[in-house]
Specification:
- With about 250 residues, this protein is of the alpha/beta class.
- The protein has a single domain, classed as 3-Layer(aba) Sandwich (Rossmann fold).
- It has 8 helices and 7 strands; from the N terminus they run βαβαβαβαβαβαααβ.
- The longest helix has 29 residues.
- It binds NADP nicotinamide-adenine-dinucleotide phosphate.
- NADP nicotinamide-adenine-dinucleotide phosphate binds next to α1, α4 and α6.
């Protein structure tokens, strides 16, 4: 094991939720540094466009992390020379039907949020992390949220999902100590992305109104900068939690 930062030209990264927002911005930033990026999400057409625009070799992977079989078989579905993943960005997530009182929530939406943000993220980690452990080299960055440590009314399902992300990430980090695999949780406050529109079935007008209620928001690129900062540290440094909010 060397003390070199893992973020180097030729390293392989898997970014979930790369078709929009933070995931897309991270994929762009990683590729600019010469990283070979596997861009994963459900909307393959978007991923193919992204991959064609990236400056270094990249791969589009159709992946619904809420589909257990799909998440479990990520490595098997990659070409052999893309299977040694050095960097995993656990970013895919949503808040389907959210920002509503809990008694008005549809049960299927509640389950879908947990299925993606928690179960899908954990299954993806389980599919990718063991080969990192075996090689003694890897960095997993999970996109949590300030809602992983703060509770909010009418936001209980998403908050529960991000509390789970926080507990999982912190526990797993302890477990991986000394293995050469680092684990970071980047916890943003409000980010202006497609997140609010996805929450309300693609209703962009409602999403814009929601974002306009706040004085300021982060951009996906702001979060990507923070992610790259955590990846740029030498191997003996593990940034555990990184909280960023709009100033
Ligand atoms: N926006 C915020 O204010 C904010 C704040 C803190 C944390 N976060 C977190 O940041 C992450 C990214 O959010 P964002 O703001 O960038 O939202 P976004 O613009 O809506 O992007 C979400 C991404 O996740 C993907 N995705 C959703 N469900 C998926 C699934 N089941 N399988 C695979 N991919 C899936 C979407 O792609 P497809 O639809 O193509 O699958 C999309 O690429 C999420 O984990 C979110 O909880 C967001």
């Amino acid at each position: 094991m060397t003390d070199k930062a893992i973020l180097s030209a030729g390293a392989v990264a898997l970014v979930t939720g790369a078709s929009a927002g933070i995931g897309r911005a991270v994929a762009v930033a990683l590729s600019a540094r010469g990283v070979r990026v596997i861009c994963a999400a459900r909307r393959l057409d978007r991923l193919e466009t992204l991959v064609s625009e990236l400056p270094h070799p990249a791969l589009a992977l159709e992946l619904d992390i809420a589909d257990g079989a799909a998440a479990d078989s990520i490595l098997a579905r990659l070409p052999e020379d893309w299977r040694q993943i050095d960097i995993l960005i656990n970013n895919a997530g949503h808040d389907l039907g959210g920002r509503q009182p809990y008694h008005e929530r549809a049960a299927d939406d509640v389950a879908a949020v947990i299925q993606t943000n928690v179960t899908g993220m954990m299954r993806t980690t389980l599919a990718v992390m063991p080969q990192m452990r075996e090689r003694g080299r890897g960095h997993i960055v999970t996109i949590g949220s300030v809602n992983g440590v703060e509770w909010v009314a009418n936001h209980s399902v998403y908050v529960a999902s991000k509390f789970a992300v926080h507990g999982f990430t912190n526990s797993l980090r302890l477990e991986l100590r000394g293995t050469g695999v680092r684990l970071t949780e980047v916890m943003p406050g409000l980010v202006r992305s497609e997140f609010a529109a996805a929450r309300w079935g693609g209703d962009e007008a409602r999403a814009e109104k929601f974002y306009d209620r706040f004085d300021a928001a982060l951009s996906p690129e702001d979060v990507a900068d923070a992610v790259l900062y955590t990846l740029d540290t030498p191997a003996h440094v593990n940034i555990c939690d990184l909280v960023l909010r709009p100033a």
